[in-house]
TrEMBL record:
<protein>
    <submittedName>
        <fullName>Ubiquitin carboxyl-terminal hydrolase CYLD</fullName>
    </submittedName>
</protein>
<dbReference type="InterPro" id="IPR001394">
    <property type="entry name" value="Peptidase_C19_UCH"/>
</dbReference>
<dbReference type="GO" id="GO:0016579">
    <property type="term" value="P:protein deubiquitination"/>
</dbReference>
<keyword id="KW-0963">Cytoplasm</keyword>
<feature type="domain" description="Peptidase C19 ubiquitin carboxyl-terminal hydrolase">
    <location>
        <begin position="24"/>
        <end position="204"/>
    </location>
</feature>
<keyword id="KW-0378">Hydrolase</keyword>
<dbReference type="GO" id="GO:0004843">
    <property type="term" value="F:cysteine-type deubiquitinase activity"/>
</dbReference>
<dbReference type="InterPro" id="IPR038765">
    <property type="entry name" value="Papain-like_cys_pep_sf"/>
</dbReference>
<dbReference type="Pfam" id="PF00443">
    <property type="entry name" value="UCH"/>
</dbReference>
Length: 227
């Protein structure tokens, strides 16, 4: 365990600490969905560090300390987390979430995030989405849903998010404090994309509801939007 707090890894430090054998979070007993989610959320960004320190109204301090001291801090300090540390968290999630399969079965990452953020830590939803003519909906992450696009062979995240929002007729009600995006699902038999290029920056200008945007013809403020 690493009782001290460590900042997220950046630039050369990230390469030095995370590259090589025996790095990352050790997998065990269908833990891949949780391992990848935890690595993505905490290894190189502080966007959700409030989950580790802030005493939310409904916050379970035991789960919070396991997450901080047994997973995030060792990951940032040495670049490696043992499977037993993640199992310790999974056992607590099983107990709090009243679901016996958290310790042995593969889950949807969204189910894990909803449980730990909403029920255990009591964090307010990170995203506000709205479909045309529908009520506003709150959520903690956005899963990309889309039909197969023949022109998208090796897409980047920007393209996937834009296609998904367009096909679902969705808009962001406000700029999110943290935008967690789940890539298109795939199984052993079928993969929609063999590779997805990470977009290091995400432009959400055209995804915002009622946001002033530039006309692509004259350059003035646009008054109409054509999908």
């Amino acid at each position: 365990q690493a009782p001290d707090s460590f900042p997220p890894l950046r630039n050369e430090a990230a390469v030095r600490v995370l590259r090589g054998r025996m790095k990352g979070i050790q997998g065990h007993c269908n833990s891949c969905y949780m391992d990848t989610a935890l690595f993505s959320l905490f290894s190189c960004t502080s966007a959700l560090d409030s989950m580790l320190f802030k005493p939310f109204p409904l916050c379970d301090r035991n789960v919070q300390s396991i997450l901080r001291d047994e997973i995030v801090n060792p990951l940032r300090k040495t670049g490696f987390v043992r499977a037993r540390s993640v199992m310790h968290l999974r056992e607590q999630l099983t107990e709090k979430g009243q679901c016996s399969s958290f310790t042995n079965a593969e889950k949807d990452p969204e189910e894990f995030l909803n449980l730990i953020m909403h029920q255990i830590l009591g964090i307010e939803p990170l995203l506000k989405l709205q479909s045309e003519g529908q009520k506003e909906q709150d959520c903690y992450c956005y899963q990309i849903f889309m039909d197969k696009q023949e022109d998208l062979v090796v897409p980047d995240v920007q393209q996937l998010v834009e296609h998904s929002f367009l096909s679902s007729d969705l808009k962001l009600v406000e700029i999110p404090s943290c935008f967690i995006i789940q890539m298109p699902r795939f199984g052993k038999e079928y993969k929609m994309f063999s590779k997805i290029i990470p977009s290091l920056e995400l432009d959400i200008t055209d995804l915002l509801l009622d946001s002033p945007r530039e006309c692509c013809v004259c350059g003035d403020v646009a008054t109409l939007e054509c999908s």
